[in-house]
Design brief:
alpha+beta, Beta Polymerase, domain 2, 2 domains, 6 helices
């Protein structure tokens, strides 16, 4: 670990995300700071610094198992996207970025006139699911907005689907990692990632 305390927090937060079921970067950074015995007044690293440390950790210790896990999760994402094809699904998050851990769900964005349309499709496919609300920022400087979401298990992989209005396909919400619009991948890009 380096001597810079902010860098040490980023590296420890990456370890927490890598080893434990922690997906929230803010929580991982606070846990890391506390574990390292650093003062609460310490400026925490940016989420992008934690993500970079996580990528380095995965490259160093994840090896073939990490690559195979991400590929398997992308195949699961592709199956789920095909099942939800009527709603223009997009893959987002760690599975798309290649930083997924064994605790990460597959995250999809779908677009529908009403959330009930998506629920009815899952009913018709006989896929059991739970519903919840996901809080996302849609514009810089704006507060959080709640979107209906659902989760189900595909094989052994959890899949979380956030439902946006149809016009939501044009503007992605902001990433909790870097504050920029979340990168979204349609089916063709996921197929390309799997081919490579």
């Amino acid at each position: 670990m380096t001597g810079d305390p902010t860098r040490r927090v980023a590296e420890e937060a990456a370890r927490i995300i890598f080893d434990e079921a922690v997906q929230d970067y803010g929580l991982a950074k606070r846990k890391a700071r506390d574990r390292l015995g650093l003062p609460v007044t310490l400026a925490l690293p940016k989420n992008t610094e934690v993500e970079q440390a996580l990528m380095s950790l995965q490259a160093l210790f994840g090896g073939t198992a990490h690559i195979e896990r991400v590929e398997s999760m992308r195949r699961t994402a592709l199956e789920a996207m095909r099942a939800l094809a009527a709603f223009s699904p997009r893959l987002v998050g760690p599975v798309l970025a290649g930083t997924a851990t064994e605790h990460s769900p597959v995250n999809l964005h779908v677009f529908a006139d009403t959330p009930e349309d998506v629920l009815m499709t899952l009913f018709e496919l006989r896929i059991p699911f739970d519903t919840f609300d996901r809080r996302l920022r849609t514009r810089a400087g704006a507060g959080y907005q709640e979107f209906p979401a659902l989760r189900f298990i595909a094989g052994e992989t959890p899949v979380e689907v956030t439902v946006f209005p149809c016009h939501g396909v044009r503007q992605a919400p902001l990433s909790p990692v870097d504050g920029k619009p979340i990168r979204r991948a349609a089916e063709a890009e996921v197929i390309s990632l799997l081919a490579n």
